[in-house]
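The data are quoted verbatim here:
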Amino acid sequence: SVAGGMVHCNATARLLPGDDVGGATEWCLVLAGWDGELLPVAVVPLPGGPGSPPRAGSVVRPGLDVPLAPGRAYLGGTRALHFDPRSGRLWALLPGGEIEAWELLSTRPLGHWPSPRWPAASSAASVVALCAHAAGGELFALARGGASGPRLLRARLPPGLDDGFVTEVADSDRGGSDVSFRGLASNATAPTEG
């Protein structure tokens, strides 16, 4: 699974070590993808702006790995990923149907939730794409269909994850201080839990 979106480069400072993005570039492409073990994140400058591709030969090198909740099984990887560039949130649908989310641009894990309540005729196993609409408090998914073809599914976001996206997750769900973004620049630190 891979997800990405265009953001202002100044919002990506915590995602890269040092000054890798460059000060003159206004727009960057943020990419996150499951590599079989981790969720690495890379930032690629878009010197021509959001309507232009990266320069030919641009190196795409992950700057950090998104922390996966400790003690969770990721043997099947991720079924789907979604990155919302407006909020900087990364969503992952896991093989068992659970959802995990992070505020990627501020390098903060948001939590882990059980499978959404999809319509009765569908299951998390059939979901192949995911999209969160936080302002509307909804999670959309594209599921493989039978003879009728793909189906668009809709479920409510977990409580507290709508427009304000403020939620309290028990430290045991966050992994307490054991959860941190690997590869952070030395001048950036993961937020401390209060």
User: Anything to note?
Assistant: The first strand starts at residue 2 and ends at 8.
